[in-house]
Amino acid sequence: MKFNIALLAGDGIGPEVIEQAVKVSDAVAKKFGHEITWRPALTGAAAIDAVGEPYPDETHEVCATSDAVLFGAIGHPKFDNDPSAPVRPEQGLLKMRKKLGLFANVRPTFTFPSLLDKSPLKQERIEGTDLVFLRELTGGIYFGEKGRRDEGETAFDNCVYTREEVQRLAKKGFELAMTRSKKLCCVDKANVLETSRLWRETVQAMEKDYPEVEVSYEFVDAVAMRLVQWPNSYDVLITENLFGDILTDEASVISGSMGLMPSASMGADIALFEPIHGSYPQATGLNIANPMATVLSAAMMFETAFNLPEEGQAIRDAVNKALAEGIVTEDLANGGKAYGTKEVGDWLAANI
Amino acid sequence: MKFNIALLAGDGIGPEVIEQAVKVSDAVAKKFGHEITWRPALTGAAAIDAVGEPYPDETHEVCATSDAVLFGAIGHPKFDNDPSAPVRPEQGLLKMRKKLGLFANVRPTFTFPSLLDKSPLKQERIEGTDLVFLRELTGGIYFGEKGRRDEGETAFDNCVYTREEVQRLAKKGFELAMTRSKKLCCVDKANVLETSRLWRETVQAMEKDYPEVEVSYEFVDAVAMRLVQWPNSYDVLITENLFGDILTDEASVISGSMGLMPSASMGADIALFEPIHGSYPQATGLNIANPMATVLSAAMMFETAFNLPEEGQAIRDAVNKALAEGIVTEDLANGGKAYGTKEVGDWLAANI
Ligand SMILES: CC(C)[C@H](C(=O)O)[C@@H](O)C(=O)O
Ligand SMILES: CC(C)[C@H](C(=O)O)[C@@H](O)C(=O)O
């Protein structure tokens, strides 16, 4: 098969880790007889510097006409702590999500037996954890009307959801639950928020279409607790944009494998794949960043966007083998030999 | 001195744990020569059952004319999972906060060396944790306009903050930081929300009035992570209502001492003190609930509302002694002898 893949390397360590994912994907394409055309485009601080815009129209054009988007990371310290700067990398991210219609952010948190000791949690708490968040990504308070009144003395942000927005996200949640253990948790704050009540009633009405799925409803504050206490009690969780922002980040650190966690953002027409870690500016250019999360994001791309599970599995197998043989960057080296970003990428490509 | 204290026992285990706090407070009053008049009033499901209202006007009258409020817990399973029920206990809670003007919720998370093994976190992660959240409690999305449009198909919740609301909360944060390690963290989502940008600019403008306090600004998602990774890197944190709801609950489970964590909610004229745990319906009437969080809330009451630190310390000393001697309820008994709620209360009162 032939694929066009938009390649958004972004800032910081983005370009370095993306390079390894490209290498590994090319090895997969070669082995399975596919042909990939990579279509690089600017985004983030890099795009602001080059053309004054974090998500330029040309970049959107490239993404919208590709079969998938592979994304590195964005964010640069020069924009930090200045949330009022007129142009910021994050605005590009939000614009991209909205314009590409990426309404469902899929964030798995799973564990690697050999990495359990990296978790801040005790082993018996984290063992066996394998959960997936579906975070709504193009609605809610992120995109509602916001502004000031009273000569700037009052600020407001409006959180809005339509039943349809909830339905399309929940549908993905039910479908995912059907391929897993058939347990779905709807996370809301229905004891306080009207939008949460809409979420809850919408999901409740969909239950009858998925009689095999056991649905539970939990308040966001309770989930923030139980994620730390008994993360392995969860399977598929669905939630709105802001709750998802907070909870998926909380979930990402419990496994101890943050440097390995991939993610997908799915729209009706296209999907984007990226590591959950940030642009890690301090490590830029040092050849020390762990490329495995980006490489595993490429695995998700083969599986989800191209419906090629074997190709994805080939990547996962190579990563597992690298972990078993200690072909890892310094974050996972445990005092043993640390390989460079590029060397890990080379090894993975050679082991496809 | 003479004090009138409104006594809101509430639901579930509320009445049992409140009874112990009364006993211990009375012992303190006797020892230090104070006189307490307890003024019981209805709240929560108990109030709904009795008068059809979770925070009746008579209860408000009692609270508003007292020197402090001691609160147990509210919530009853018959209202669970039915966030659309016309009258719910939580509404009483929100009404009470608003009518009493309890704008600052103070939630400490600290550790007891003897209880570190109860934490889901590894010992080296949790050791030495001693942080306090100040959560804004009467503004934000909890109290903004909310409702439906488009024949119920669209729901909205408005989040609103004024500079003044931020200032009075932040002032408490700066003042608290001055009595501790002079480190203050402002938690927001200023890269996305206009209300967060107001929070950040307001706190930034106040920095000059507290030159000794070192202020940091962190995004809510980053804090959700670092709370699990390095909780002991935090000291005083200030944040808005919804973020505070999520993060204080997350923080409460990391110490392993949830059954011991007190809290205060402060207004301009009155303050309320309550354990952070819920009404724990399954344990109601079984004489097994841990009364220590409520007893320590009474300690906070003496210290904060009455400015009587010695009286508060007498309670803390008794609790520490009980922990050291194993006079604890089953949640802390570790397979050893478990005392009843009442027996722990009696012991604490006798050891003041
Ligand atoms: C950078 C920021 C706007 C973004 C978000 O809040 O969605 C990030 O935290 C994320 O989760 O991808
Ligand atoms: C019961 C609920 C309305 C309340 C809140 O969200 O404030 C509770 O979670 C709390 O934190 O006191």
UniProtKB/TrEMBL annotation, chains A, B:
Q: Which pathway does it take part in?
A: Amino-acid biosynthesis; L-leucine biosynthesis; L-leucine from 3-methyl-2-oxobutanoate: step 3/4
Query: Which subcellular locations apply to this protein?
Result: Cytoplasm
The residues that hold substrate are: R97, R107, R135, D221
What keywords are annotated for this sequence in UniProt?
A: Amino-acid biosynthesis, Branched-chain amino acid biosynthesis, Cytoplasm, Leucine biosynthesis, Magnesium, Manganese, Metal-binding, NAD, Oxidoreductase
In this chain, Mg(2+) is annotated as bound at D221, D245, D249
Superkingdom of the organism of origin? Bacteria
Q: Where is the Isopropylmalate dehydrogenase-like domain?
A: 4-348
Query: EC no.?
Result: 1.1.1.85
The residues forming the signal peptide are none
Q: Name one GO molecular function term.
A: 3-isopropylmalate dehydrogenase activity
Primary localization class, coarse = cytoplasm
What cofactor does this one take? Answer: Mn(2+); Mg(2+)
Q: Which reaction does it catalyse?
A: (2R,3S)-3-isopropylmalate + NAD(+) = 4-methyl-2-oxopentanoate + CO2 + NADH
Q: Which Gene3D superfamilies match?
A: Isopropylmalate Dehydrogenase
**Family statement:** Belongs to the isocitrate and isopropylmalate dehydrogenases family. LeuB type 1 subfamily.
Write the protein's name: 3-isopropylmalate dehydrogenase
